[in-house]
Amino acid sequence: MGAQMRVYKRRIKSVTATKKITRAMEMIAASRIVKAQRRVAASEPYATELTRAVTAVAQGSDTKHWLTTEVERPTRAAVLLITSDRGLAGGYNSNAIKAAEQLNNRLIGEGKEIVSYIVGSKGVSYYGFRGRPVQQSWTGFTDNPTYADAKAVAGPLIEAIKEDTGAKGGVDELHIVYTEFLSMMTQTPVDRRMLPLTFEKSAEDSAEVIEGAIKRGGPEIMPLYDFEPSAEDVLDALLPRYVESRIYNALLQAAASKHAATRRAMKSATDNAEDLIKSLTRLANAARQADITQEISEIVGGAGALADANAGSDR
Amino acid sequence: MAELHVELVAADRKVWSGEASLVVARTSSGDIGVMPGHQPLLGVLESGPVTIRTTGESGDGTMVAAVHGGFISFADNKLSLLAEIAELSDEIDVERAERALERAKSDADAHAERRADVRLRAVTSVR
């Protein structure tokens, strides 16, 4: 075997090994998307009912609440960025970070100070490398978030918004940047303002949480509720749960998106490996053919030389 | 007989849904019983057992669920119980709850103790 050919064979072998790994990762990610999607669907009834309840309170009472009141001149905004702990997901993390950067620039343009909260070690290391301050970060659950994780994230955020802006750590607004899972093929990073809540009074005089994760079909006229113990207390208890459920939903969608992005990235890696193997095999075949041709011409040349020498000695 | 539609929903799943004739739950200002035709209500739940008197497809009977915090909302004969954690009494592992209660007592963890206690009470009130 010629030296050229040996080099090709070796490369084919290594690319084949890589292909096996990427194919396995693709299949693992594909099975996880289904699971993650199911969890998003399972969390939906709670989110829907909660949105309904928040809408009902907002409509049924003129209660002023610190989670719903718009600050006249907001000066500090918290931005929660949801990334993943691990890479190998194509542009997933960089797209989410880019969306957060755009939002940050917009908020700074509006004269607000940014307080960063980050989920996922990819986002943490991005901010760490650039030496940007991060108020708080969470890692370790991005692939499989539970409701307890969402609670852990929501707690400090709700605390921060309760505080006065003058005090340490207080914020006026809460934004969240995550990757929305639209379909198997499409996931887009989005930024949403979560707090203060935005209510919209429509013509039918029905209030609706317009930035709710669940879009309800058409305006719905809510009955007049009796509040137990009182509208303020209900709202007090309801709104933190609403924030938690929104964050939970965002975490689940981000997880599903991450798996989908991984699957796509690994699929294209596998395809590339196949292409590479194909072209390397062609090169190896050409090298082998060249080897054979050379050997034949050497034999023919050698035989010719021998025949010439014999013919000379006969004479 | 009039019935009301009940949805018992936890943060990460739908626990139970069906028809019922009476639902008794514990709000922060005391126990409240909701029957069909009740006026629209929105209340804060304490952790405690919720009793559902079932009718219709699921058969006549009494079901108890352990609910840890959450909300009750009722309108148009539809009742939703929202809870971060909710378990039906037949899903509760009694031994585990008892162990959890022991542990919570020895750790003096009031929250965990309350959770385990609610679970156990939900089970015992059925049997």
TrEMBL record, chain A:
Topological category with respect to the lipid bilayer: Peripheral membrane protein
| This protein's UniProt keywords | ATP synthesis, Cell membrane, CF(1), Hydrogen ion transport, Ion transport, Membrane, Transport
Location(s) in or outside the cell: Cell membrane; Membrane
The answer, when asked if Magnesium is one of the entry's keywords, is no
Q: InterPro entries given for it?
A: ATP_synth_F1_ATPase_gsu (IPR035968), ATP_synth_F1_gsu (IPR000131), ATP_synth_F1_gsu_CS (IPR023632)
UniProt xrefs under CDD domains: F1-ATPase_gamma
Q: Quote the Pfam families the UniProt record gives.
A: ATP-synt (PF00231)
Q: Which PROSITE patterns match?
A: ATPASE_GAMMA
Its biological purpose is as follows: Produces ATP from ADP in the presence of a proton gradient across the membrane. The gamma chain is believed to be important in regulating ATPase activity and the flow of protons through the CF(0) complex.
Complex formation: F-type ATPases have 2 components, CF(1) - the catalytic core - and CF(0) - the membrane proton channel. CF(1) has five subunits: alpha(3), beta(3), gamma(1), delta(1), epsilon(1). CF(0) has three main subunits: a, b and c.
Q: Which family does it belong to?
A: Belongs to the ATPase gamma chain family.
Protein name in UniProt: ATP synthase gamma chain
Automatic annotation (TrEMBL), chain B:
Where does this chain mainly localize? membrane
Q: Does Metal-binding count among this protein's keywords?
A: no
How does this protein sit in the membrane?
Peripheral membrane protein
Is the keyword Ion transport assigned to this protein? yes
**What are the coiled-coil residue ranges?**
78-114
What Pfam families does the annotation carry?
Answer: ATP-synt_DE_N (PF02823)
Q: Which UniProt keywords apply?
A: ATP synthesis, Cell membrane, CF(1), Coiled coil, Hydrogen ion transport, Ion transport, Membrane, Transport
Subcellular localization is given as: Cell membrane
Q: Which residues form the ATP synthase F1 complex delta/epsilon subunit N-terminal domain?
A: 4-85
Instruction: Give the quaternary structure.
Output: F-type ATPases have 2 components, CF(1) - the catalytic core - and CF(0) - the membrane proton channel. CF(1) has five subunits: alpha(3), beta(3), gamma(1), delta(1), epsilon(1). CF(0) has three main subunits: a, b and c.
What this protein is reported to do is described as: Produces ATP from ADP in the presence of a proton gradient across the membrane.
> What PANTHER family would the database entry show?
ATP SYNTHASE DELTA/EPSILON CHAIN (PTHR13822), ATP SYNTHASE EPSILON CHAIN, CHLOROPLASTIC (PTHR13822:SF10)
Q: Which family does it belong to?
A: Belongs to the ATPase epsilon chain family.
Q: What is this protein called?
A: ATP synthase epsilon chain
